């Protein structure tokens, strides 16, 4: 049976919904906001545009739509625009069907080969998207008026599939005009040719809200022809931010066991959210989820470096590894002009706030007087990104309330690395709450009363 792409997507989406299966695997934080809108757009058969700041998962969401296509679909063998054997639209395939009938050569195309994507850049041409006259075909003897002298662009070559235009406002206005017929009349026009190719595809675009709504860089008729406009957002809940970091951060390094305690991820997640809300940061550009992912990977790399230098068996991330992420993350944030030269200072301040907030959220009410008493008596403890966990613990000696501290942080299997990670959070939290002094010298941190 021959189905159009939009009917195919609708049927497969309805089957997923009825079966209670996720239609968009790997998408975090959109369950109650963005995904219902996307589902309604697909069920209505609408082309859609996703609006959102950078790093909100727009491209990831678009690519998951491929999973709603049939696993395999028949095409006329050798057809440049993936004609269906039952309903060919190009001249070549119609002639083949007339000549060979039931013997029409058929090939099978996987769902992943039915997806096309173009990052809109100022140098994109109509030929790239729609097509142009192919001088090689003319040189082979075809006449200039022959429609088969056309070299098809990316859009018709994705016929019977999904085509995505990323960062749509970056297309020049004259290039945007070429998409008008694709969205409404479902045909294409190439130079002086009148090609009636009823394209069968879902067109999805992504854009930054500032470009899409304020700068006037998308022509009004093109806006009007998208059936649905969906706004994306950054994760609304801290738990979703943490889940996204765990999903996206690359931490499975061969031969190096890496442990990232949950409280470290919460600090990075809170830091990311504070940076997004900071008045010193240019809010129009947003703070990508890649900020949190890169920061987490840098923290993990600091732990791996310590393990390599000191010979620790496992690389367990600790609070002392967090400052390494400040310099690494600077390039992922656009600051207001007035903050020029203060970028690292702003990021470091927000990281301290995130650490203090995490300390209060996880350890509020916990009796740390036994730990603090040792420092009130004049003791000092030195730590740092190259101080192994066992050495830190030996300097502290017996730690009153350690079992309860680990329990509050959800650490079930005690190890030197995890114990040191928990103790460092307690020490840093006490310092940030002005109950401990702290000196930083040459990469070493000294806590004292």
Write the layout of secondary structure elements.
Elements: H1 5-18, H2 34-44, E1 48-51, H3 58-64, E2 72-76, H4 91-100, E3 106-110, E4 115-119, H5 126-129, E5 131-133, H6 135-139, E6 150-152, H7 154-157, E7 161-166, H8 173-176, H9 180-183, E8 188-190, E9 193-195, E10 201-207, H10 209-214, H11 220-225, E11 228-231, H12 238-248, E12 258-259, H13 262-277, H14 289-310, E13 315-316, H15 324-329, H16 343-363, H17 369-376, E14 380-384, H18 389-396, H19 402-408, H20 416-432, E15 437-441, E16 444-448
Parallel strand pairs: 1-10, 1-11, 4-7, 7-10, 12-13
Antiparallel strand pairs: 2-3, 5-6, 8-9, 14-16, 15-16
Helix pairs in contact: 1-2, 12-13, 12-14, 13-14, 13-16, 16-20, 18-20
Describe it for me?
- With 449 residues, this protein is of the alpha/beta class.
- The chain folds into 2 domains: 5-231, Rossmann fold (3-Layer(aba) Sandwich), CATH 3.40.50; 238-448, no CATH class.
- It is built from 20 helices and 16 strands.
- It has helices at residues 5-18, 34-44, 58-64, 91-100, 126-129, 135-139, 154-157, 173-176, 180-183, 209-214, 220-225, 238-248, 262-277, 289-310, 324-329, 343-363, 369-376, 389-396, 402-408, 416-432; strands at residues 48-51, 72-76, 106-110, 115-119, 131-133, 150-152, 161-166, 188-190, 193-195, 201-207, 228-231, 258-259, 315-316, 380-384, 437-441, 444-448.
- The termini are far apart.
- The model has no long low-confidence stretch (mean pLDDT 89).
């Amino acid at each position: 049976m021959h189905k159009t792409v939009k009917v195919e997507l609708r049927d497969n989406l309805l089957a997923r919904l009825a079966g209670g299966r996720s239609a968009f695997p790997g998408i975090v934080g959109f369950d109650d906001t963005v995904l219902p809108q996307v589902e309604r757009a697909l069920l209505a058969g609408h082309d859609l545009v996703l609006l959102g700041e950078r790093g909100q998962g727009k491209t990831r969401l678009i690519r998951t739509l491929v999973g709603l296509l049939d696993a395999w679909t028949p095409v006329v063998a050798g057809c440049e625009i993936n004609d269906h054997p039952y309903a060919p639209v190009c001249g070549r395939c119609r002639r083949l069907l007339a000549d060979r009938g039931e013997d029409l050569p058929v090939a099978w195309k996987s769902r992943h080969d039915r997806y096309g994507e173009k990052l809109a850049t100022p140098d994109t041409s109509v030929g790239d998207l729609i097509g142009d006259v192919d001088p090689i075909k003319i040189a082979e003897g075809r006449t200039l008026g022959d429609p088969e002298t056309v070299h098809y662009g990316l859009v018709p070559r994705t016929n019977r599939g999904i085509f995505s235009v990323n960062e749509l406002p970056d297309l020049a206005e004259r290039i945007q005009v070429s998409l008008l017929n694709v969205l409404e009349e479902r045909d294409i026009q190439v130079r002086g040719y009148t090609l009636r190719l009823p394209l069968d595809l879902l067109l999805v675009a992504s854009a930054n809200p500032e470009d899409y709504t304020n700068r006037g860089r998308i022509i009004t008729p093109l806006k009007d022809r998208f059936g649905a406009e969906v706004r994306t957002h950054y994760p609304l809940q801290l738990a979703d931010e943490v889940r996204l970091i765990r999903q996206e951060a690359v931490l499975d390094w061969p031969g190096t066991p890496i442990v990232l305690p949950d409280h470290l991820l919460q600090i990075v997640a809170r830091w990311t959210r504070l940076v997004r809300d900071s008045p010193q940061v240019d809010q129009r550009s947003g703070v990508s989820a890649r900020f949190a992912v890169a920061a987490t990977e840098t923290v993990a790399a600091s732990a791996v470096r310590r393990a390599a230098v000191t010979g620790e068996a496992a690389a367990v991330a600790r609070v002392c590894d967090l400052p390494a992420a400040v310099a690494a993350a600077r390039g992922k944030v656009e600051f207001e002009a007035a903050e020029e030269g203060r970028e690292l200072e702003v990021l470091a301040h927000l990281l301290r706030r995130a650490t203090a907030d995490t300390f209060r959220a996880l350890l509020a009410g916990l009796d740390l007087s036994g730990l603090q008493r040792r420092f009130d008596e004049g003791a000092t403890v030195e730590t740092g990104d190259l101080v192994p966990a066992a050495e830190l613990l030996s300097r502290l000696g017996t730690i009153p309330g350690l079992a309860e501290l680990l329990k509050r942080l959800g650490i079930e299997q005690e190890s030197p690395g995890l114990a040191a990670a928990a103790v460092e959070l307690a020490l840093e939290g006490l310092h940030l709450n002005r109950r401990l002094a702290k000196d930083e010298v040459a990469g070493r941190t000294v806590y004292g009363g």
